[in-house]
Amino acid sequence: MKFSKFASRFSSQSGIVQLMDDLGNAMSGNTDALMLGGGNPSHIPGVQQYFRDSLQRLIDNPRLFAHAVGDYELPQGNQQFINAIVEMMNKQYKWGIKAENVALTIGSQSAFFFLFNMLGGEDQSGTHKQILLPITPEYIGYSDVGLSDNMFYSYRPLIEKQDNHFFKYHVNFDDMVIRDNTAAMCVSRPTNPTGNVLSDAEIARLSGLAEEYDIPFIIDNAYGEPFPNIIFTDTNPVWNKNIIYCMSLSKVGLPGTRTGIVIADEPVISLIRNMNAVINLATANFGAMIATDLISSGEILRLSQLQIKPYYQAKVEHAVDVMHREFTGLDYYIHRPEGAIFLWLWLPGLPISADELYERLKAKGVIVISGSHFFPGLEEDWEHKQQCLRITYSMDENIVEQGIKLIAEELRNIS
Fold this sequence. Notes:
Elements: H1 5-8, H2 15-28, E1 34-35, H3 45-60, H4 62-70, H5 79-93, E2 102-105, H6 108-119, E3 121-122, E4 128-133, E5 152-154, E6 158-161, E7 166-170, E8 182-188, H7 200-212, E9 217-220, E10 243-248, E11 260-263, H8 266-280, H9 286-296, H10 299-326, E12 333-335, E13 342-346, H11 354-363, E14 366-367, E15 369-370, E16 388-392, H12 397-414
Parallel strand pairs: 1-14, 4-5, 4-8, 7-12, 8-9, 9-10
Antiparallel strand pairs: 2-11, 3-4, 6-7, 10-11, 12-13, 13-16, 15-16
Helix pairs in contact: 3-9, 5-9, 6-8, 10-12
């Protein structure tokens, strides 16, 4: 069968396909592997109980249940949920947004598909427009969503080595050049895969550059404030009409509901609404309807601050302690974990590629993600790309501990 050029973009095994296949097999019980490679949030009992109670209230209300399962939602998204988001963000940060500044999508991944392709690619004059990623490593899911080739360009970070086998990435403003064909810039904060949190000063400088060059500044806030608040440094979230702010219900504990949230200037929201109608007909009902009371009551802030954040903070401290213990004598650095649910491991003396290490660990029953997939748009060859692994610490502690132990054993075998 002959497929289109569009279909050819999905015919190869990309990093995100590999990740979701491995994650799906692990979560469905099709494998006994130690799953340290996915981005699935933990099942936090107290948080899940709240969702069960909310879902039960929805089931017990005939009118709401009928709407949840029997009606198409508006292409912009559930209006009660949108109004609750507007009220919460304005109360927390004094942003001054309106309902016209918010749209829902079927998960954040579809939001980035919409945003990157509405801004990047060939414009009406025939110019090929690109998305600038000011710092890599960056999120694996950005790499393949562009419908045109060469959608992204990016820059190597500055690397600051710190005490006790830690290091940290910083934006390299001195080397960063904003090209004439730049359509937008995008960062994740906290960053998936590294757990890096760009400082308020870095965000302010990037925002200033975006305004200077008259391009939108996209901030991927899947793990940040005000929810799920898996962030271990102080930050001050900002928004203006030049910023496109993206959030999600996934890392709160509702990844199965596929609910993404975009906050942007009205023309962007209008386009997202239209794209939802054309591609999906409507947005999904369940996530918004389960979470509306959570947001309008402010309960989501309490859960994020008092349950979700401390839960992950304890898990990352445990994972780091295990890694320091098991990696004694090895040449390794951990990116200082400032947020998200991953440890980013740098192995400067690795004698094989990270891709080969991934395959060897998979054969031993440990699933991680090779760092090579997390450098979208980096045009230069850089050995650092083949010296890193992303390790998830959101699984049960015994799985994390066993997995780290086996990684250390394999590193000793090949050293």
